[in-house]
From TrEMBL, chain A:
It comes from Branchiostoma floridae (Florida lancelet). Binds 4 [4Fe-4S] clusters per heterotetramer. Contains two stable clusters in the N-termini of NUBP1 and two labile, bridging clusters between subunits of the NUBP1-NUBP2 heterotetramer. Its cofactor is [4Fe-4S] cluster. Component of the cytosolic iron-sulfur (Fe/S) protein assembly (CIA) machinery. Required for maturation of extramitochondrial Fe-S proteins. The NUBP1-NUBP2 heterotetramer forms a Fe-S scaffold complex, mediating the de novo assembly of an Fe-S cluster and its transfer to target apoproteins. Negatively regulates cilium formation and structure. The keyword Nucleotide-binding applies. ATP binds at residues 26-33. Keywords: 4Fe-4S, ATP-binding, Cytoplasm, Iron, Iron-sulfur, Metal-binding, Nucleotide-binding. It is found in: Cytoplasm, Cytoskeleton, Cilium axoneme; Cytoplasm, Cytoskeleton, Microtubule organizing center, Centrosome, Centriole. This is Cytosolic Fe-S cluster assembly factor NUBP2 homolog. One of its GO terms (biological process) is iron-sulfur cluster assembly.
TrEMBL record, chain B:
HAMAP family: Mrp_NBP35 (MF_02040). This is Cytosolic Fe-S cluster assembly factor NUBP1 homolog. SUPFAM superfamilies: P-loop containing nucleoside triphosphate hydrolases. GO terms for molecular function: 4 iron, 4 sulfur cluster binding; ATP binding; ATP-dependent FeS chaperone activity; metal ion binding. The keyword RNA-binding does not apply. Keywords: 4Fe-4S, ATP-binding, Iron, Iron-sulfur, Metal-binding, Nucleotide-binding. It comes from Branchiostoma floridae (Florida lancelet). CDD domains: Mrp_NBP35. One of its GO terms (biological process) is iron-sulfur cluster assembly.
Amino acid sequence: MALSPKADSAADNMSGVQHVVLILSGKGGVGKSTVAAQLALALRQAGKKVGILDVDLCGPSIPRMFDVEGHDVHQCPGGWVPVYPDQDQRLALMSIGFLLQARDDAVVWRGPKKNAMIKQFIGDVVWGELDYLIIDTPPGTSDEHISVVENVRQYSPDGAVLVTTPQGVAVGDVRRELTFCRKTKLPVLGVIENMSGFVCPHCTECTNVFSKGGGEALANQFNVPFLGCVPLDPQLTRSLEEGQRFVDAFPTSTAAQAIGRVAQTILQRGEQQENMDTS
Amino acid sequence: MYRSAIEDLWCIYGAFGSLWESGTGDSPLGGMFAFARVERRAGQHRCSESRNRCVGTRPGKNTLRARFYDNEPHKHSTHLLTHLTHLYDAGYCSHTGVCIVRHTCTEPTCGRDPPGRANFTGQVSAVQQQGAGHNGDTMVAMVTAGRQISRHALSISLKKRNYGKLLRLGRLHVTVKQMTRKKKGLNGLRDLKSSLYGKVHQSGSGWSPVYVEDNLGVMSVGLLLASPDDAVIWRGPKKNGLIKQFLRDVDWGELDYLVVDTPPGTSDEHLSIVQYLSSAGLDGAVLVTTPQEVSLLDVRKEINFCKKVHLPVVGVVENMSSFICPSCQGESQIFPPTTGGAEKMAADMGVPFLGRLPLDPRIGKCCDEGKSFLSVEPESPAAKAYKEVIQRVEEFCSSHSNKGNFGNPVE
């Protein structure tokens, strides 16, 4: 059966992407978008060309995190052109936030429409040559996740990074996300424990605001790598608010170093994958 | 075409069944006849599961569509509660008339089952006041807020968590007004939940919610799963079906408040719950956010969603406002309100501001252990803040009794 022209162009647009990494979480509000953004910046610092695809259609946060909220998405013969927040075009963004008329417009869609949109995001965006495509997802295991996995399956994604907070409630939900990964045969690159501890600026005492150790225990239980703890850092949240590049501005902070280690793990995994493919 | 005597017998039973059947399993006979109808149409396996997986039907030769049931929804009511994948009332697409088991209509308002809506009014009228909270942004503490407040009978976060575990379908926190001021943290608690897995019972009057206290019952898809690791990977139509069952088939009894916890976003679940409860009347929605702008962005969308569906907004709660260090009592702002926080956003959007909840590690701990934070630490600043918010919500609910219908969201 001959491929439709649409399928051909879909293959073309994603053919320049070397590695696809999904950021998943069973629970909401654990910091997926934050981790996705910082990870992308850390990979860019390591010299890679990175793209971020935000498939959280109801609550897109990526445009705000890079201070490119009002930017428009342009069309070219190959499809949509992603938004480049920097001059050297080493970071490409695509989110539904760029397509909304007003920033407060609610996206009240049922599953089928969301699936169609995600398919377009994956197939119709001219990513060009990218080393890494990071896909930021909404919480849960719903339409969006099923669609993303179905659509990127043919490009052999590197795997998924799961984000959790140490609290039992979050860990309980992330276990189900691990089940989702297992069922969809998506490799799990590891678990990140976000919001793990807060160092009080007044007395430098570290308080475990959301308990401690849940992420690590989960990783051990399910036999997946534990990628590290990222502590709560007001500087990080402030940078996100203002669209600053946290890993660039505060490279010595604990959070930045933790993200850096996660990025190193992903890079190593990517290189292993490349070696396996070429050998 | 020739029909055997046995087939005729089924038809007759079916006819009687249709007389009795006024809802789902209201009477034992109704259930039996529903069974009969399923058996009758065993040959037409409409369930989205493969024949081998479905436990509710068996291979049969009959493929005739029964004449007695022209357009009634087919329901696999014989299925065990644990076999969730097709535990829903299929209904028919209001736009194309096609059974929605295999059809996904792209109309945003589709998925409703007009004949079934009347049942919601009947079932839900026993609940005197209902509320639903909306939370544009998902934060871990959102569910905590819902739980802590739910005991005190408040509408909380229509923030459904649609995670692999059917959290997506959310928890319907049910609270019955009581004299005591105890609050209970529900769920999530691994310990509590693990003992509750698979414990939902079905009786002649419907599913029984799980009562964690005498006057606090919970229904959640999490309670229907066999293990804490089970993921619920469903698309929209299936989720809608289960939400409908939660509302129609659960025997809530007499309630003062029904609190509906929802996942983040403005998606199938939110549309469904608003549509299904519109005839029964929703008091309003409580939105929970953090002071960050990235959260406020999403909550603004949620407020617009409420306006679109004509759902009154009870107010906005700012969670994780500030953090008091337990050792030096110094106050820090982990999530700085760079754009004025929730109070300014509420003022800009013209909705009430209900209060600020500080970040307290003990809240998370209580939730994990299944205790009520308000009874463990009643004098803490966080507990006082919770009580203030609850009081304001109660005042809203008692002053606004809204039983009107909400419009459809127009896209």
